Amino acid sequence: MSENPKTAVIEMSGAEVCSMRETSLAMIEDVNWTVAAGEFWVVAGQQQSGKSDLMMMTAGLMPPAKGSCKIFGIETQSFSESELADRLRVGFVFENGQLFNHLTIMENVALPLQYHKDLTIGAAAEKTLALLELMELKPLADVTPANVGLSWLKRAALARALMLQPDLLLLDNPLNGLGARHVKWWLHFLDQLWRGHEWSGGKPMTIVATAEDLRPWKNDARRFALLRDKKFSLLGSWGEVASQDDTIVMELMEASLDTTTYRKE
Amino acid sequence: MRQGLAKTLEFADAQLLRRAPLPRSYSDFLGRKLFLFLLTVQGLGAFSLITSGVILRKFRVARNVMRPLIRHEIARAGFGLLPMFMFVAVALGFLVIGETVSTLARFGAINYIGTVMVVVVVRELGPLLAAFLVLARVGTANVIELGTARATGEVEALETLGIDPVHYLIVPRVIGMAAGVFSLTVYLIIGALVSGYLCAFLQDVPITPGDYFKQLVESLGWLDFALLALKTIAFGFFIAIVTCYHGLAQPLRLSDVSRVAVRAVTQGIVVCVVIDALFIFLYLVA
Fold it and tell me: What's the pTM value of the predicted model, to 2 decimals?
């Protein structure tokens, strides 16, 4: 299962990304992008730029309208029952968690393990509680999602995505709406996962996250891309991002918001 | 998984037809309605085939997860409705006997009470009433639950976890409703037959419990039992299919859920009546 560091985990060529809600609406055109195993990518873009749609297409929730999108060398269009093992190598964290409201936090986190290993909740409890402990979610184990704040919902969603120890983790705007303490925790934890966390057996994880604000993601080891005007542009490392004179990039990495001027799009 | 489902259930045409401006002529109106009807029939047919396929193919998949879900749905569509069904059963028995006894007595045909009960309650009113009540109580809840799950992205979340939404969300509901309608119909019929005799007894109809029971047994054939089981299971299966189809098979916004629930209940009633008509035909042929 372990990837050669040079192996492409995600490969897109000429891919056109449609809106998940309105499939006739093209959100991003002509995406040419390769993510190698062990890389940490941050895809930045403003609201409605198609970040979520790009993530969902990458996860195989919808096919590209044009071009091709491959994960672990398999076209996502042909992701079927026979490729289930490869599909389970992808973990996905939605922007709002998207937990199942009729299940408790513990049941939500345990569900993928229970379903794919055919276990009762009792049999899955040990591993689930260990993961909840890691996420500081143990006190909320028996609470339903409706009674949990967004910051903790997102952590529960991350726990659910990590339950089957994926090789690739896709995160849709994970830091959006989080307080400073939670942002710090997320960045630290994602960094650990990327380097090889004991939860994933010390194996480095490939991570792709989207963001509306680039500032928290400042790190020379990460690679950046930008979505604007239906275009996907590779920006490179943080140093290359910082040297850009693109107005949107500058806006996404402004250290402080200047409220005295307003730039009309 | 989802791509396969989406390809089979291509609703873009139906959505376009529904959003199209008002038709200019009566024939346009009829044509649009006909196309919508055919698209719905196609969608329901495809959805029921997909669901049946998943039931058969994944019978042994994740049994530790599916069993509690199926038990929950059986309790919800069966046991949970028992008090209401007992009330309806008593009311139905009193209604049928109360209305027919005086008529039968007028023609000196009091010995046909049992036959009337079998024809009216066992073959027709019992199963149909049970189906309508389950549709109203559980079917609407199905559409709202699934529609909300679809609108809030829970279905996509299942797909990212490699869990087939049809298996996890639909199969327990289909099995639960089929079992629920079948068993509730049996209880409804027993309750109506007993309360029917009580009504006759209160109206001083000269018939002993033994005679009444004998009339019932003589009027019932093996075909009644077989077709009753088939019919009620078909009612439960198709009510679940119609309500789940509307709740799950098309992209929804939260604001669409109430509208879709109304459409699902209407179509559920139509489907039940069509199935009932088919079974009347079967009774006549057999």
Answer: 0.85
